[in-house]
Amino acid sequence: MTVRAAALSPAEWSPAFQEAERFLRLYYAETAWHEIGRPGLNRRLEQAAAELARGGAVTLTTAELTHGAKVAWRNSTRCVGRGYWPVLELRDLRHVTDPEQVFAELLNHLDRAWNGGHLRAVISVFGPGVRVLNPQLIRYAGYQQQGGVLGDPQNLDLTRRLQALGWQAPKTRTPFDVLPVAIQSGEQVCLFTLPPEAVREVQIGHPSLPDVAALGLKWHALPVIADMRLEVAGQSFQCAPFSGWYMQTEIAARNLADAGRYDVLPEMAKALGLDTRRERTLWRDRALLELNVAVLHSFDAAGVKIDDHHTVTRRFVRFEAREGRAGRKVYGRWSWLIPPMSASLTPVWHRSYTDTELTPNFFAQPTPWPEAPLPAQPFRMSGCPFHF
Hints:
Blueprint: H1 10-13, H2 15-30, H3 41-53, H4 62-74, E1 89-93, H5 99-114, E2 122-126, E3 130-132, E4 142-145, E5 148-151, H6 156-164, E6 181-185, E7 188-192, E8 201-203, H7 210-213, E9 218-220, E10 224-225, E11 229-232, E12 235-237, E13 242-243, H8 248-255, H9 265-272, H10 283-302, H11 309-325, H12 334-337, E14 361-363, E15 386-387
């Protein structure tokens, strides 16, 4: 604010105001209509100081929150696809806190983001006191069975917790059973079933190897991160699910290939007729490559947007160049920016980054599951019978 320090009010000295001021200056600078700047900054800062002086918080406009969410994506040090940050769509749902309404809006989010397979980057920001407890909206169950795990081992704990809240697995279990969504509001947790039409899945086949389709692999088309908090102007929005689209290595080189996940490379090698008796045959590498080919082919055949690691990393380098021209430094966590296969063939392999987290940004937050498992109760799609 363009006033003397001696004239600042107590509210304007507060850390809350300083965070709000820093963001609002950023917003007005980056959304300027012309080179002389966007008008109204001083008046907006006075409004912010007045809100804080009354004991409240700064109420961000939808436009301010939208830009904050975009910048949060731009600042995400672990995301190699953040060059798309200007196209992020925000759904301002800060008035929505009822669990059933939240779930209805999550279904609307999935539909909006789906866009007939031409996936959109979307974030839905809900009101205070509500949380989605699932790490992602769409997750596959993991069941501990004699001789191993059926489904996704990463979700063993999530599956047990949802079962403790009353969810009952299908009588005939499969490796790809979609888990319900747990929504917490105040002292209650509600479970909701995603309808089949909301979970778009892609069956995995290979363009020239029919035995790959016989493995019965598939993956959901739309990733929606659901449990991170969005921080803008010093405020935390604890329920802000956001979605983009997959890079094929996320599915083929991690979700399906990791030994601690679906571990399908041995089956893939068998379908390819590879010699798995010795590591020197590089059967894992060959199976991994063909699995990535299969995922890209399958998403393309289904008309679903997906990126490949070569295209994304080259776009990231162009993103760095644009940010440099705008006078901004790009920070990053190198181990997350390089893809989990053929990393040395991509341009980011040869670069170095400083892992510094700026705000606005997305941050992990503790998930408030009950400390002790609750007794299993009859599961209901709606209503909230479960309390901490």
